[in-house]
Write a structure and sequence with these properties.
Elements lengths: L2 H10 L13 H60 L5 H5 L9 E7 L4 E7 L3 H4 L4 E2 L11 E5 L20 E5 L4 E12 L14 E8 L6 E10 L1
Parallel strand pairs: 2-3, 4-7
Antiparallel strand pairs: 1-2, 1-5, 3-4, 5-6, 6-8, 7-8
C-alpha cells in the first residue's frame, strides 16, 4: 500500500463528527417532529373529550332536575301516606274536604285538562320550586278569600306548569288544603313582564293565579293564568 492509499484509507475510516454548534442531524429533527405531533394529538384528544363531556352534561342536566322533582314529589306522597296512617288530620278538617298534607306543603293542586297533580310547597325560592309548585307566602292559601298565587317551573324540575298555555276559559283547577277543597275556573291567560307584581295584588275577587316563565326555555316574560273561585 503506497502513501496515497494509506492516507485515503485513513481518512475514509474516520466518521464525521459534530461539535456543539453543528447543525442538528436528520434523525434528531425527525424525533423532535414526532414528539411534537404526538403532543399535539394528545392535546386535541383531551380537548375533544372535554367538549364531549361538557355537552353530555348540558344535555343531561334537565333530565337530572326532572328526576330531582319526581323524587321530591314521591317522598311527599309517602310522607302524606304515613301521616294518614298515624291519623295526622282531624275528622272535622276532613269533613270540610281537607287532605292530609306532608310537612312543608300547603296544598294539592289538580288540573285535569293538562294532567297535572302536584303538592304545592311554601315559598318561591329555587330550592322550593325544585320540589314542586310554590305558594307566594304573602298571599292567601287556595280556597281562602283573596288572590292565592302559585308559581312553577315550565321547562325543568318536572316542569309542572309546562302546559299552562293550553288552559282555556272555563277549565277547572282543583285545590285541596289541610282544611278545605276548592274549585276554580280559568277566566283568562295573559303575558306580562317579570316585574309585574300586580298579578299578586289583592282585590275584591277570590282568585287563583298561576305564574310561570314565558316563552318556554326563557325567563324574559311571565305567563299568567287567572282562575276564579266557584262554589
Amino acid at each position: 500500500m503506497n502513501q496515497t492509499d494509506q492516507t485515503h484509507t485513513g481518512t475514509s475510516a474516520i466518521a464525521p463528527s459534530h461539535d456543539a454548534h453543528s447543525p442538528v442531524g436528520p434523525q434528531t429533527r425527525t424525533g423532535f417532529n414526532t414528539r411534537t405531533r404526538a403532543k399535539t394529538r394528545t392535546g386535541s384528544l383531551t380537548m375533544g373529550l372535554l367538549i364531549i363531556l361538557v355537552g353530555a352534561g348540558l344535555m343531561a342536566y334537565p333530565k337530572l332536575t326532572d328526576l330531582h322533582y319526581l323524587w321530591a314529589q314521591w317522598r311527599l306522597k309517602v310522607a302524606a301516606a304515613a301521616q294518614s296512617l298515624s291519623g295526622g288530620t282531624g275528622a272535622d278538617e276532613r269533613s270540610l274536604g281537607g287532605a292530609i298534607l306532608p310537612d312543608g306543603t300547603v296544598a294539592l293542586i289538580v288540573i285535569p285538562s293538562i294532567g297535572l297533580e302536584a303538592y304545592v310547597v311554601e315559598g318561591t325560592g329555587g330550592s322550593a320550586l325544585a320540589r314542586g309548585p310554590g305558594h307566594y307566602p304573602h298571599t292567601p292559601l287556595p280556597g281562602e278569600a283573596g288572590n292565592a298565587v302559585i308559581a312553577g317551573h315550565r321547562t325543568m324540575y318536572g316542569h309542572p306548569f309546562h302546559d299552562l298555555d293550553r288552559l282555556q276559559p272555563g277549565d277547572r283547577i282543583l285545590t285541596i288544603t289541610s282544611n278545605r277543597s276548592a274549585t276554580y275556573r280559568v277566566t283568562e291567560t295573559i303575558v306580562v313582564g317579570p316585574s309585574a307584581v300586580e298579578v299578586t295584588a289583592q282585590n275584591h275577587r277570590d282568585l287563583l293565579t298561576l305564574t310561570t316563565c314565558h316563552p318556554k326555555g326563557s325567563a324574559a316574560k311571565r305567563l299568567v293564568v287567572v282562575a276564579e273561585l266557584h262554589d
